[in-house]
Amino acid sequence: YRPEIDGLRAIAVLAVIFYHAEIILFGRNYFQGGYLGVDIFFVISGYLITTFILKELKHTGKFSFLNFYERRVRRILPALFTVMLVSLPIGWLYLLPISFVDFTKSILSSIFFGSNYYFYYTGQIYNAESSLLKPFLHTWSLSIEEQFYIIFPLLLILFLKFFKKYIYYVFAIGIFTSLLLADWGSKNYPSLTFYSLPARGWELLLGAFLSQLEISYGRKDY
C-alpha cells in the first residue's frame, strides 16, 4: 500500500471534479486546467502496472498473464457493471429514444473497452455541450488504460527477454515517439489525438519508466 499514491489520486480526482464544476471565483475559473488530473492518472497507472509486473518477475522469475488479467477484471468490472445497471433505468426514463440508443451503444463499447474510439467516431468532443447526454463519456480513459493493459505486459516481457540491457532506451524511444505524435496530432487531429492510446502512451510509459528506475535502483522512504 502506498499512501502517497492515494494522495496523488485524490489530487487528480479533485482537479477533474473542479474542472467539470466550472467554479468561477472573482470572475475567474481557477480550475480550467483541472483536466490534467486525467494525465496524472495515466502516469500512476503506468507506474503501478509496471511495478506489479517487474516485482513478480523479480521474485518468481516468471509472469502469470492469467493472474494479471484476473486482478484487472476483479478490480474494474464489478464497479463498471454496477454503474451500468444503475444508469440503464435512469437513462430509460429521462433520455429521448435516439439518445437512449446511443447510450446503450456507449455501454457496449465500454464493456469491450473501446469507448474512446466509439466516442471519437460518433463525433463527440470531450466536454462539448452534447456530452451532457453521454453519461458514459468518462469511460474513454478507462478504455485507454485497458488497451494499455492488454498490449503492454506482452511487449514488456518480450523487451526484457531480448533487450534487457537497453530497456531504458526502449522506454525513452516510446515516450519520445508518443509525445511527438501527441504534439503533431493535437494540431492536426485534436479529437482523435485526445482519445487515442498511441497519443496518450507517453504518459503511461513515463510511469513505467519511473517504475523501472525504482526497481533497478531502489526507493528512499522519507
Describe the structure.
With 222 residues, the protein is mainly α. Helix content is 76%, strand content 2%. The protein is built from 9 helices and 2 strands, in the order αββαααααααα. The protein has a two-stranded antiparallel sheet. Helix 1 packs antiparallel against helix 2 (36-60), helix 4 runs antiparallel to helix 5 and helix 7 (167-188) packs antiparallel against helix 9 (197-217). The chain is globular. The two termini are 15 Å apart.
Write the layout of secondary structure elements.
Elements: H1 3-21, E1 24-25, E2 28-29, H2 36-60, H3 65-94, H4 97-111, H5 115-121, H6 139-162, H7 167-188, H8 190-195, H9 197-217
Descriptive terms for the model:
single chain; mainly alpha; two-stranded antiparallel sheet; 9 helices
Could you give a quick summary of the protein structure above?
This protein has helices spanning 3-21, 36-60, 65-94, 97-111, 115-121, 139-162, 167-188, 190-195, 197-217; strands at 24-25, 28-29. The protein is mostly helical. A two-stranded antiparallel sheet has the order 1-2.
Task: Quote the distance from N terminus to C terminus.
Answer: 15 Å
| Largest beta-sheet details | 2 strands, antiparallel
The low-confidence runs, each spanning 5 or more residues with pLDDT under 50, are none
Helix content: over 70%
Strand order, sheet with most strands:
1-2
Radius of gyration: 19 Å
Counted by DSSP, the helix tally is 9
Structural class, by secondary structure, is: mainly alpha
**Which series of helices and strands comes N to C?**
HEEHHHHHHHH
| Total beta strand runs | 2
Q: Choose one word for the global shape.
A: globular
Strand content: under 5%
Average pLDDT for all residues: 87
